[in-house]
Amino acid sequence: MSDSRLTLAVQSGAIHLPGTGAIAVFRPRAGADLSALPRERVAVVQGNRPDHDAWARQGYRTDVAAPEGFAAAVVMLPRAKAEAKALIARASAMGGTVIVDGQKTDGVDSILREVRRRAEVSAPYAKAHGKVFQFQVAPGTFADWDLPLVQTLPNGWVTAPGAFSADGPDPASVALAEALPEKMPGRVADLGAGWGYLSFHVLERRGVTECALVEAEHAALEAARMNIRDDRARFHWADATTWADPEPFDHVVMNPPFHTSRAADPALGAAFIAGAARLLSGHGTLWMVANRHLPYEGPLTAAFREIREVPGPPAFKLFAARRPQGQSAARSRR
User: Fold this and answer.
1) CATH number of the domain that residue 282 is part of
2) Which domain holds residue 241?
3) For the segment 223-271, what is each residue's pLDDT rounded down to a tens digit?
4) CA 227, 176, 173: angle at the middle one, nearest 5?
5) Separation CA 313–CA 292 (nearest Å)
6) pLDDT range class, residue 1, cuts 50, 70, 90
7) Alpha carbons within 13 A on the beta-carbon side of 25
8) Which of 37, 64, 134, 237 is the most interior residue, by most CB within 10 Å?
């Protein structure tokens, strides 16, 4: 596992930490093994809310941006190569030592080759289908690898590089936006709102009094704030599977993610469905889109009493689900 590779590399002497100064750790997932690093010097840099909160609960200093003047940095490679290179650019910006830890499936070999073209790299420590290596360069050496936190596309949309559908609207979201009814009276929640494409179209529907955008990635939510300039919009940096609101919603819209790693994980979509049912009033409706192959009928049946498939492109399934299971009579009357 990559979680133990860093610890073994430090213990073996393959990786060396500076004796003083802050150590910025970029994008560690919850549960990663940081035990080789002195906790009092670690600053976790994490924009994903569930991971951010997991580190904060353990007592780590945690923020969405790197601290000023860190002496060393650890980059936990993400799946997206462009994001990985941007993290290395930010990690090397101070000129301190940079440690890169990643799986082969996340492209660590490719990143290693590219770093070697610009820097003298330590002998990689290989373990558990991955590698960890170390280098130090002058500030700015990798500046051209960096990405802006948000970007404006030629069509005018603002997106977050490295986040989902950064190059433009996802076809599934487009399909759902086109299938939404002309009237959506009341309060609406967009779970996993991303940079706000669905919410933008929700707010064009008649009768909407409020639209809550719930998104776990901080950069994506910042992009959504730029795309949606509507006083009815509410922005929540939160885990959509656990987020709660004091008042029920009349509609929930969502194009739920189905990856936590390279493998598809339908359980994540099922958690979104359960979350939607919990947020809705007794008369509320879930409007949902999913890739055709994903088995969401079971979770929908467990969470709602009425389910129908809405016409749409063959590649996707669009659902309208009503009457959440287990709603109290008091909540149903609201």
Assistant:
1) 3.40.50.150
2) 151-332
3) 999 999 999 999 999 999 999 999 999 999 999 987 554 555 678 999 9
4) 50
5) 10
6) very low
7) 27
8) 134
Residues 75 and 185 both lie in one domain: no
Listed residues 115, 145, 175: the one ending a domain: 145
Nearby residues of 115 by Cβ (< 8 Å), 6 or more positions away: 88, 100, 121, 133, 135
In the β-sheet with 233-237, what is the strand arrangement from edge to edge? Answer: 233-237, 206-215, 183-191, 249-254, 280-291, 316-324, 304-310
Taking the C-alpha atoms of residue 146 and residue 167, their distance in angstroms, rounded to an integer, is 17
Nearest one of 120, 42, 41, 119 to 76, comparing CA atoms:
42
Cβ-based neighbours of 328, under 8 Å, separated by 6 or more: none
Sheet with 42-45: strands ordered across: 61-63, 42-45, 23-26, 72-76, 97-103, 130-136, 125-127
Has this prediction a pTM greater than 0.90? yes
Q: Which of 111, 145, 179 is the last residue of a domain?
A: 145
Alpha-carbon dihedral angle through residues 64, 274, 248, 176, given to the nearest 10 degrees: 80
What is the Cα 1 distance to its own chain's centre? 22
The DSSP symbol for 143 reads G
Question: What are the phi and psi torsion angles at 182 (to 5°)?
Answer: -65, -30
Q: Which helix (H) or strand (E) segment is 285 a member of?
A: strand 280-291
29: burial class by Cβ within 10 Å (0-12, 13-18, 19+)?
middle
* Model confidence pLDDT, tens digit, residues 167-213: 999 999 999 999 999 999 999 999 999 999 999 999 999 999 999 99
Measure the CA–CA gap between 90 and 149, rounded to whole angstroms. 12
As separate numbers, helices (DSSP H) first and strands (DSSP E) second, the chain gives 10, 16
Interatomic CA distance for residues 109 and 131, integer angstroms: 8
* Residues 135 and 161 reside in one and the same domain: no
Q: Do 316 and 292 form a contact (C-beta atoms < 8 A)?
A: yes
